Amino acid sequence: MKNKYIIDVKFQETFDATSKARKDINDILVKEEFSVKFINIPKANSYKELYKNIGVTYKQLVSILDEVEDKSTLLFQYPWDSFSYKFSKTILKYKKNKNLKTIVLIHDLNSLRSQSFFGRLYYKKYIKEYKYLNNFDYVICHNNEMKKLLVNNKVNKAKIIELGVFDYLTDTDNSIDSGKYKSVSLAGNLSREKSAYVYDLCAINQKEYKLELFGVGFEKGDYKNVTYNGAFPPSELNSHINFGFGLVWDGNSIDKLDGDFGKYEYYNNPHKLSLYLSCGIPVIVSKEAAISKFVKKNNVGIVIDNLNNLPEVMKKITKRDYNKMLKNVSVISNKVKNGYYTIEAIKKCK
């Protein structure tokens, strides 16, 4: 049997999904007979230490590539370090010399996700992120919108595999409180810097639903029908959300997906979507979001024009509608909780 490895970096668990998404990929593929090879990048407190880490990272990568057997499969979780782009020639050299099969699984595209114009330009023009991705035999991206973006930036279409949706491992088996279907849960970073729209959403004077907030950075105010429930690590959050709908939105505005974070949803699969599905509840997403196609196809929630319309949309939802969506969510929930989408994507990397 050919040897299979994941190359990843160590992350501490945080109150967002950064570490969980990567850890879940590792845990899923370990059961598929992959082994994980970690690169430990020291925390840098200065530019001097930051540049020193280039050598530290390089030595660890080379050590791993020296160890792996000929004809092995290597999966790289991406991105893993600001300087990983410098090592593409090294990866290509070992790939050729050892006849390796290489796969890169995208968590984020820095040339899209960077929060400034110059940051995006840096990754696209100087770092040449798309050229870097093209060095691998297979590129696992989020969805068809991201695939089209990669192809438009000259990533070989034949290399690209669509994930569909991120898996979200959990042992929690929620009993859904269908009596609270007139509720909307929102989990994530609630700071104004990251999610400015949250505060306009809280300010809507409505009585059609109760807004339930979970996460860090929330600035409390005099809001009606809004409850702040505190922050929980991803591994615990599932047990706290077992009712209503899960809202997937981002950016500065409730009118549309706006700002750097909002526009990023045109292409990515938010891990928040997977969280809600693993909880067993349907979702509310923007029609502009790439994930809206998945939601429509599987009938696991509501696609909405803008959040100003949310009270009217929630007013029309009946318990019968909700229960029908719950049945569809149950099917997808079982898949994301058991690593289905990751395993299927890897199977396509033949």
Describe the structure in your own words.
This protein has helices spanning 18-30, 47-67, 88-98, 110-113, 117-126, 129-133, 144-152, 197-203, 234-237, 259-264, 271-279, 292-298, 310-316, 319-336, 340-347, and strands spanning 4-9, 34-39, 73-78, 101-106, 138-141, 160-162, 183-189, 210-216, 226-228, 245-248, 283-286, 301-304. It is an alpha/beta fold. A 6-stranded parallel β-sheet has the order 2-1-3-4-5-6, with helices on both faces. The two termini are 14 Å apart.
What does the secondary structure layout of this molecule look like, with pairings?
Blueprint (H helix, E strand, L loop, with lengths): L3 E6 L8 H13 L3 E6 L7 H21 L5 E6 L9 H11 L2 E6 L3 H4 L3 H10 L2 H5 L4 E4 L2 H9 L7 E3 L20 E7 L7 H7 L6 E7 L9 E3 L5 H4 L7 E4 L10 H6 L6 H9 L3 E4 L5 H7 L2 E4 L5 H7 L2 H18 L3 H8 L3
Parallel strand pairs: 1-2, 1-3, 3-4, 4-5, 5-6, 7-8, 7-10, 8-9, 10-11, 11-12
